[in-house]
Design brief:
single chain; alpha+beta; 13-stranded antiparallel sheet; 4 helices; 13 strands; globular
C-alpha cells in the first residue's frame, strides 16, 4: 500500500513539474468535445437507443434540456418507465415495479438526477457551479495512463473523472453511492465517441458497482440536437382523480 501511494505521489509530482494543471486538462477536454461555444449552443438533446441489463434489451429515449432538465424512458414488455428531473426535483413512474402513479424521488436521488441533467458535465464552468477540481495525476491501480481529476461538487459529493491522455475525452467517472443501504463504488464508463454536428459526444455508457450488482449499458444509435422539447415533458403528472364510487382505479402507465 505504501509503495502504491509513493508511486502515485511521484506521478503527481512529475505532472506538476511538467506544468500540467487541472484547468489546462479541462480546457483540452472542452476543446476535444468541440469547444465551449459549440457546447453552449446545444440547448436540447434527444438520445435514442437501448438499455441492456443481463440478457434483456430495453428501448430507451433520453431527453435533456437547459437548464438541468432530463427525462429518461425505457420500455419493458410493453410498459414504459420514466425517470425525470424538472430542474428542481425528480420523479419516477415505474409501472412494472408496482408504481400505479408518479412518485417523487428522494433528496439523494434528486441530487444525482440534477447532475445527470447537466448538458455540459461537471468540468465545464465548474467554478460557477460551486465545485472544486484537483489534479491527482495518474492512478497506478486503475487506468494508470489516464489523467485523474478529483471533482468536489457544491453539495460536498466527490467524484473522480478520468481523461484519455491522447484525446482528453472522458473515459470513466467514479463515485460512491448508497445502494439499498450499502455504500458502494459506482463506475460509469463512457465510450463510442462520435461527432454530432459541431460537438463530439459519447454514444455508450456502462454503469457497474463494486458490490457485484448487474451492470447496465446504454447504447445510443442516434442523438438529435436542438430539437423542440416542451418543458411540460419534465414535470411530474398530477395523479388522475378517481371517479366517485369507483375504488382501486389506477391511472394509465403511459406518460406524456
Amino acid at each position: 500500500m505504501q509503495r502504491r501511494a509513493l508511486a502515485a505521489a511521484g506521478m503527481l509530482a512529475a505532472s506538476l513539474a511538467a506544468g500540467q494543471t487541472a484547468d489546462e486538462l479541462i480546457a483540452k477536454n472542452i476543446a476535444a468535445r468541440g469547444g465551449l461555444d459549440n457546447l453552449k449552443a446545444v440547448q436540447t438533446m434527444r438520445l435514442t437507443g437501448a438499455m441492456k441489463a443481463g440478457g434483456d434489451s430495453m428501448p430507451s429515449v433520453l431527453e435533456l434540456k437547459r437548464p438541468n432538465m432530463s427525462r429518461w424512458e425505457f420500455t419493458v414488455e410493453g410498459q414504459t418507465a420514466v425517470e425525470a428531473f424538472d430542474g428542481k426535483s425528480g420523479w419516477t413512474w415505474i409501472p412494472f415495479a408496482g408504481q400505479t402513479e408518479p412518485q417523487p424521488m428522494s433528496e439523494e436521488e434528486s441530487l444525482d438526477a440534477e447532475q445527470q441533467a447537466d448538458l455540459d458535465g461537471p468540468l465545464v464552468d465548474y467554478q460557477k457551479k460551486g465545485s472544486k477540481v484537483e489534479l491527482l495525476g495518474h492512478d497506478p491501480d486503475f487506468r494508470p495512463e489516464d489523467w485523474k481529476l478529483k471533482v468536489t461538487l457544491k453539495s460536498g459529493e466527490v467524484r473522480f473523472v478520468y481523461l484519455d491522455p491522447k484525446t482528453f475525452l472522458q473515459t470513466v467517472s467514479v463515485l460512491r453511492r448508497k445502494v439499498e443501504g450499502h455504500d458502494v463504488e459506482v463506475r460509469s464508463e463512457l465510450g463510442d465517441y462520435r461527432k454530432v454536428g459541431t460537438v463530439v459526444l459519447p454514444h455508450s455508457f456502462k454503469a457497474s458497482t463494486s458490490d457485484g450488482g448487474q451492470a447496465q449499458t446504454l447504447q445510443f444509435e442516434r442523438i438529435d440536437l436542438n430539437v423542440p422539447i416542451d418543458d411540460g415533458r419534465f414535470l411530474m403528472p398530477t395523479p388522475k382523480k378517481l371517479p366517485e364510487g369507483v375504488p382501486d382505479a389506477a391511472p394509465s402507465p403511459v406518460v406524456g
